[in-house]
């Protein structure tokens, strides 16, 4: 059983994109290269600004759905505060690892 993650990207127009995956590094590199979702392709560049870990896909899906209902200001506040979404936990090590790999490109 692999862990699932909800991730948040800040897009070039200061909007947020939220997704979920079991491989954040791969998914972020797809978004950054313009091979992600239609939304991020239209709003490049993207920066990974938050990653939360969940025990299973269903929990990550619920957290993502909950996050999407927030206003832009509430999303920004939660990201800045690194607040948990549902039962997830913020994963700073994963975020730093991906950020440092991205800066080497």
Features:
46% helix, alpha+beta, 4 strands, four-stranded antiparallel β-sheet, single chain, GIY-YIG endonuclease, 105 residues
Description:
It is built from 5 helices and 4 strands. It has helices spanning 24-32, 38-42, 57-68, 72-81, 92-103, and strands spanning 4-11, 16-21, 46-54, 89-90. The protein has 105 residues and is of the alpha+beta class. A hairpin with a 4-residue loop joins strand 1 (4-11) and strand 2. The protein has a 4-stranded antiparallel sheet, with helices on both faces. It has a single domain, classed as 3-Layer(aba) Sandwich (GIY-YIG endonuclease), CATH 3.40.1440.
Per DSSP, what share of the residues sits in E-state strands of 2 or more residues? 15-25%
Give the spatial strand order of the biggest sheet.
Answer: 2-1-3-4
Secondary-structure element pattern, one letter each: EEHHEHHEH
Helix content: 40-55%
- How many domains comprise the coordinates? 1
Text of the CATH class: Alpha Beta
State the secondary-structure class: alpha+beta
Quick one: how many beta strands? Answer: 4
Mean pLDDT: 88
Q: Main sheet, how many strands, which sense, barrel?
A: 4 strands, antiparallel
Secondary structure tally, helices: 5
The CATH topology, please? GIY-YIG endonuclease
Assembly classification: single chain
CATH architecture: 3-Layer(aba) Sandwich
Unreliable residue stretches? none
* N-to-C CA distance: 31 Å
**Tell me, what's the shape?**
globular
For the CA atoms, what is the radius of gyration?
Answer: 13 Å
